[in-house]
Design goal:
By secondary structure, the protein is an alpha+beta fold. Among the domains are: about 30 residues; about 160 residues, Alpha-Beta Complex (Nucleoside Triphosphate Pyrophosphohydrolase), CATH 3.90.79.10. Helix content is about 15%, strand content about 35%. The protein is built from five helices and twelve strands. The protein has a four-stranded mixed sheet, with helices on both faces. A hairpin with a 5-residue loop joins strand 1 and strand 2. Helix 3 crosses helix 4. The two termini are about 30 Å apart. Keywords: Hydrolase. Its EC number is 3.6.1.13.
Length: about 280
């Protein structure tokens, strides 16, 4: 792999894109900076005998911003797990498990997990690609992404590989942007999205085949990508999540970004065998 001339240009304005309410990206402050912040109140509903709902409030201890909002692990007793379909990319499993006083049966996609890369150049342009996706009958707008199907590969290494294979690019600066469950009601797929900056061309020996042979790359302003997402012109959930998160991170002076080597707890805790 070689890293040569950085991809450069003038820095673009960080003004809000047309159609993007500022409050969506930058919520109003809860108090005076540097002073103790008021406790947050979480809404709860009590169901009365007549079926009416009365809203009450519960005080939530104030910690770091929104720290009390967190997905939590849930342990259930899995009685059996049956492999229904063994696919090229993922499997379909049927689990029978206890839930409270009942037994439930659920089918789900057993997925390897995946990574994606929001590549941002110094003109605040995002690399997107039009790729044919058969189930939705569209060439949707995506960012470089791929499966975690190399044994022992870390999320960061997978992202670096995908950026090289799909975009012929390397990056000298990597940050963790988002962790997602893409469809937790029916799939164990986890997605880790990285922000790649300080970009430069690179070489690789990967041969693009199938749909990837016809990738159509394009550099677009981040603000335009955000506006397109909010207008409903982009339907890919990873692309939409990534551009909105990058916009919010930029507005916060990149303070929300995380270490790219942060343990991938979401992926480590899912059901199935493909992500092991």
């Amino acid at each position: 792999m070689t890293t040569n001339t950085p991809i450069s240009g003038a820095v673009a304005s960080a003004a809000a894109p047309v159609g993007v309410p500022a409050a969506i990206i930058q919520p109003a402050a809860a108090g005076v900076p540097g002073e103790p912040q008021p406790q947050r109140a979480a809404a709860e509903f009590d169901l009365h005998q007549d079926g009416a709902r009365a809203m009450t409030t519960t005080k939530v201890p104030s910690t770091s911003p929104a720290e009390y909002l967190s997905d939590t692990p849930a342990a259930v007793d899995v009685l059996d797990s049956e492999l229904l379909v063994h696919g090229r990319v993922w499997d379909v499993r049927r689990d029978r498990f206890t839930f409270g006083d009942s037994e439930l049966v659920r089918d789900y996609i057993d997925h390897t997990g995946a990574v994606a890369v929001l590549a941002l150049d110094d003109q605040d342009r995002v690399l997107v690609m039009r790729q044919y996706r058969h189930p939705v009958a569209r060439r949707d707008i995506e960012i470089p992404a791929g499966l975690m199907d190399a044994p022992g590969e870390s999320g960061l290494a997978g992202a670096q590989r995908e950026l090289a294979e799909e975009a012929d690019l390397a990056a000298n600066r990597w940050d963790l942007l988002l962790d997602l469950f893409l469809s937790p009601g029916g799939s164990s797929e986890t997605m880790r999205i990285f922000l790649a900056r300080d970009l430069c061309p690179t070489t690789h020996d990967f041969v693009r085949e199938g749909e990837e042979a016809e990738l159509q790359p394009e550099w677009v302003p981040l603000d335009d990508a955000v506006a397109a997402a909010l207008a409903g012109r982009i339907g890919n959930s990873v692309t939409v999540s990534a551009v909105l998160a990058a916009y919010a991170a930029r507005e916060a002076g990149w303070a929300t970004l995380r270490d790219p080597k942060t343990p991938w707890e979401f992926r480590e805790g899912v059901r199935g065998e493909r992500s092991r």
